[in-house]
Write a structure and sequence with these properties.
single chain; Rossmann fold; six-stranded mixed β-sheet; four-stranded antiparallel β-sheet; 7 helices; 10 strands; 29% strand; globular
């Protein structure tokens, strides 16, 4: 369960203070699949990074499974994040000097003890349709293929929560359907909680719960 209480994040731009996230309170149950829509600049990415412990709020709290994540020190928070949370970033986040397979396996280098990581990485790459690209480098892939590598990587540490920022942004319709069905089956079978920021009506409509951000605030749809 994720409990978000009175979360505020401000940015100072040229002497002006803007509230990117403006007093958001929200409960997300374990195993939920939530979509967040909203105009560009409404605070969606900022909210995801606050929830995932990447950006520190000005005030308010994020409590995951009873633990206030911002009360932990940096090391503890990294460990907690690595164990429980995966991100699919809005923009490419692959390491250019690593192969596709190495990119997917990278999160296992920080603490996971799964000996079968390589096998699982290959299985995930197969699931996203990139089995034949395992030894390629990111620069040799299309934007949509790179995105699918990032999606495969998000599952490697068997997270409890996946925070996805426009995960199907540059995918064709058919691939998008496959990714969406992967999310739904991982949600169903492994009870992974999904929070998905999207402009896509199909994804939003298929979510169990729909939220909309506007000007830093959030409401149920
Ligand atoms: N690092 C930053 N420094 C200053 N301002 C920022 C920063 N990150 C975001 N903002 C501002 O905070 C507001 C919310 O940005 P955010 O990226 O969360 O929007 P978004 O809803 O994800 O938009 P999009 O749909 O375009 O991705 C915007 O006004 C943006 O300019
Ligand atoms: Mg964004």
């Amino acid at each position: 369960m994720i409990e978000i209480k009175n979360l505020i994040k401000t940015y100072n731009i040229g002497g002006q203070t803007i509230k990117a996230v403006d007093n958001v309170s929200l409960m997300i149950e374990k195993g939920d699949l939530v979509s967040i829509v909203g105009h560009s600049g409404s605070g969606k990415t900022t909210l995801l990074s606050l929830i995932g412990g990447l950006t520190m709020p000005a005030s308010g709290s994020v409590i995951i499974d009873g633990i206030d994540i911002w009360s932990m020190g940096d090391d503890k928070l990294s460990e907690f994040r690595n164990k429980k949370i995966s991100f699919i970033y809005q923009f490419s986040s692959l390491i250019p000097t690593l192969t596709v397979l190495e990119n997917v396996m990278l999160p296992t280098a920080f603490g996971s003890h799964d000996e079968n990581a390589e096998e699982y990485a290959k299985k995930l790459l197969d699931t996203v349709g990139l089995k034949d690209k395992m030894t390629s480098y990111p620069s040799q892939l299309s934007g949509g293929q790179q995105r699918r590598v990032a999606i495969a990587r998000a599952f490697i540490n068997k997270p409890e929560i996946i925070l996805a920022d426009e995960p199907t942004g540059d995918l064709d319709e058919e691939t998008e359907k496959e990714i969406l069905s992967l999310f739904h089956s991982m949600n169903r079978e492994k009870n992974i909680t999904f929070v998905i920021v999207t402009h896509d009506k199909e994804i939003a409509n298929q979510a169990k719960r729909k939220l909309k951000m506007g000007n830093g605030s959030i409401k149920e749809l």
